[in-house]
Specification:
single chain, mainly alpha
Length: about 180
């Protein structure tokens, strides 16, 4: 068993998380961590595991250990940002979503997720900018249209009707998507 995979601890921890078996998940995770020293991605797995089993305090404490770390992998950066957001650590989540965007600026989901965090923090203009960029990359994203519509008051002079109509037209024959865009 190699140290890259945590000596089997990762597989056991994942299985235990799926059934929310806290004791087994903790034991498997803790078995894997010492075998993977110097690999911050294992702390992300620990944050995930602790969150799944409901130990939010320990998950937040573990996440804070990584507060200054920026991942080289866009996937890890985005996954960690998601975990931070779920833990209510929105300032840190914003930083990691921004880093994910630096690593992959053409992924609309990262811009959308950043917009949700900015909205929660009360940064409406920043949220609007991020969701607008998300829609530039993926103009038919009905969830992004919904988020943008809720950010600012729509008036007859200032609205998103043209982009919604265009997305609605492109969704021809897809009744469910059209309903979401209405």
């Amino acid at each position: 068993m190699g140290t890259d995979r945590g000596g089997g601890g990762e597989r056991g921890s994942v299985r235990a998380r799926r059934v929310k078996e806290r004791v087994v998940a903790d034991r498997q995770r803790d078995r894997a961590l010492p075998l993977s020293r110097g690999k911050p991605e294992w702390l992300v797995k620990r944050v995930e595991c602790l969150g799944v089993v409901g130990d939010v305090e320990a998950a937040r404490a573990t996440a804070e250990q990584l507060s200054g770390h920026l991942f080289e992998s866009v996937g890890l950066s985005a996954a960690f940002a998601h975990r931070l957001s779920r833990l209510g650590m929105f300032d840190a989540a914003r930083r990691h979503y921004q880093h994910a965007i630096e690593l992959d600026p053409d992924e609309s989901q990262y811009h959308y997720n950043l917009a949700t965090v900015e909205r929660f923090l009360g940064n409406i203009q920043a949220a609007n900018d991020a969701v607008t960029r998300s829609l530039e990359l993926r103009p038919d994203d009905d969830e992004a249209h919904l988020l943008r519509a809720g950010l600012v008051t729509q008036t007859t002079e200032t609205n998103n009707v043209d982009s919604l109509l265009a997305a609605y037209t492109r969704a021809d024959g897809q009744a469910r998507r059209q309903v979401k865009l209405c």
